[in-house]
């Protein structure tokens, strides 16, 4: 089942972070010890809505970076970054990030961020099932958002899934 995205936030408590346009990782790093773990265990699976966004049917033409972000050793965000693989300069920059946030690229360059779209993350979504395999239960999700960045004329798609513990650090 594909993710159902909406232009409005699903009602819930303490969800101001869902509309926060600047770097959430920079904001959280001021209050907590931040750790970013690249997910190398997941197969490099590009979802149909991501292929549709880039107008391609070939997953091999897209680059995917998946990370879990922790604050004081508590998982707070799962993030997926997808862009066209043929963008050598961007691919090189993202690969060099290693355990650093994407904010080190998109908020330090001249970029333009789109408006957000939101989801409540149903347990039936493929992404929810993959996160459950990683022992991150759906009951810990508090919201999801997606946006894209325009950087030097190229688009970067960012999907972020937020967990309950984020409210302790925002």
Structural features, described:
With 170 residues, this protein is an alpha+beta fold. Strands 1, 2, 3, 4, 5, 6 and 7 form a seven-stranded antiparallel β-sheet that branches. It is globular and about 40 Å long. It has helices at residues 24-29, 48-53, 88-97, 103-106, 126-133; strands at 34-38, 62-71, 74-84, 111-113, 117-119, 141-151, 154-163. The longest helix is centred in the middle third of the chain and has 10 residues, at 88-97.
Task: Give a nutshell description of this structure.
With 170 residues, the chain is α+β, with helices and mostly antiparallel strands. The protein is 20% helix and 31% strand.
Keywords:
31% strand; 7 strands; alpha+beta; 5 helices; Chorismate lyase; 170 residues; 7-stranded antiparallel beta sheet
């Amino acid at each position: 089942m594909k993710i159902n995205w909406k232009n409005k936030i699903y009602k819930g408590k303490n969800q101001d972070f869902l509309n926060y346009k600047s770097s959430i990782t920079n904001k959280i790093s001021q209050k907590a010890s931040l750790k970013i773990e690249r997910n190398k265990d997941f197969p490099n699976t590009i979802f149909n809505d991501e292929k549709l966004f880039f107008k391609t049917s070939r997953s091999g033409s897209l680059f995917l970076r998946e990370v879990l972000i922790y604050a004081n050793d508590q998982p707070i965000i799962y993030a997926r970054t997808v862009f066209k693989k043929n963008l050598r300069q961007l691919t090189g920059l993202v690969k060099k990030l290693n355990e650093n946030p994407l904010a080190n690229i998109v908020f330090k360059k001249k970029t333009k961020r789109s408006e957000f779209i939101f989801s409540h993350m149903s347990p039936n979504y493929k992404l929810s099932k993959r996160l459950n395999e990683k022992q991150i239960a759906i009951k810990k999700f508090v919201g999801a958002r997606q946006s894209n960045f325009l950087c030097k004329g190229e688009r970067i798609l960012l999907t972020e899934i937020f967990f309950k513990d984020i409210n302790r650090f925002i």
